[in-house]
Amino acid sequence: MDYYSDFCEVNDSMTNVIALAHQEGAIVSILASKSTNKYRIQSSSLSALSLPIAELKRRLELHFKGIHLELTLTSILPITELWIIVENHYTAHANLKRAMVSAYLPLTFVYQSKFLFS
User: Which of 22, 61, 95, 117 could form a disulfide with 26 if both were Cys (CB 3.0 to 4.6 A apart)?
Assistant: First the structure.
């Protein structure tokens, strides 16, 4: 895993796996094949995969300049989990927007009242 030498404490050329901890607690494993140029990225959380996949692709493109890289899935994408993540994000965004509006409205009322009663 020479591409991730900045993450590894042990400089061992025989190491072909790295595990990364996501902020939500999920572990993302990147396994390099010893005999072919294939990598397997896996995790119990779909949202934890996005950054390691993008970073591995970026590092491989830097290493193999001008070579076409192909990313494929070996299983179906778990759409149900993806929709749950999108729905949670939307709900959090809507709640934040509501909280910001409710915090702003009293300030607007006080500001307008000053001019009405002065």
Answer: 22
DSSP assignment of the chain: -GGGTTT-SS--TT--EEEEE-TTS-EEEEEE-SSSS-EEEEES-STTTHHHHHHHHHHHHHHSTT-------SS---HHHHHHHHHHHHHHHHHHHHHHHHHHHHHHHHHHHHHH--
Phi, psi of 86 (to 5 degrees): -65, -45
Of 46, 34, 36, which Cα lies nearest the Cα of 80?
46
Tens of pLDDT along the chain (118 residues) come to 455 555 555 555 557 888 888 888 889 888 888 888 788 888 888 888 888 888 888 888 888 887 878 888 888 877 887 888 889 999 999 999 888 877 776 655 555 555 555 4
